[in-house]
Amino acid sequence: MFKPTDLFDLSQTEHAALFDGCENAWDALKRIKEYLKANLRPELRNRCDGHAHIGKDVFIGEGTVIEDGVMIKGPAIIGRNCQIRHNAYFREDVIVGDGCVVGNSCELKNAMLFNNCEVPHFNYVGDSILGYKAHLGAGVVLSNVKVIKGNVAVEMDGQRIDTGLRKFGALIGDYAQIGCNAVLNPGSIVGRNAVIYPCTNWRGVLPADSVAKNKASLEVTARRR
Predict the structure, then answer these.
(1) CA atoms within 13 A on the CB side of 205
(2) What CATH code is carried by the domain that includes residue 118?
(3) What pLDDT shows up at residue 8?
(4) Within its chain, how far is the Cα of 180 from the centroid?
(5) Using a CB cutoff of 8 Å and minimum separation of 24, what contacts does 56-62 make?
(6) Are 152 and 165 in contact (CB under 8 A)?
């Protein structure tokens, strides 16, 4: 389930060429920088609602609104009819599709968002790819660096696959939903239509159409006065 087409509808991006020849979808993360160098044609067709800092190596499509306080360092390509909300921070090498939402205080770095993807509130998306109509709840963090040095490995069925990447956050398949304040550890892969419950600490591979539930116990007692 690691091929690009296992996770993503490649017709839902103008940048499908990024995945050409990729055996595993995470291989595209190694190519984002060079892809932008080859294909970026800086132009701003957007509307700004307030004051934003936009670097010189940035393309933004028609109908996109950039709100006050946004910083887009570039290189970056941002599609049409997106909402880039107050204080969003785009670091280097970011590709955002059409109709996406990047919300308040979100940070993106070496990342790709397919069309109609939502990263709306206090999210960190580093070295990750989010599929068509994928959604992150408020406060979701896609952790991209191991505490212990070494390459990130994908873990599935007791086996570890070395990705060759020192930094790798997550691959989030089409229509997947990640609940508020969940943390996805480096090398997480979430299949199409899968759901991760709020406040879950997730590691590994979640198959398509699955639900990862956080069953932490909850105790209710009388209030002392």
Answers:
(1) 15
(2) 2.160.10.10
(3) 98
(4) 15
(5) 61/98
(6) yes
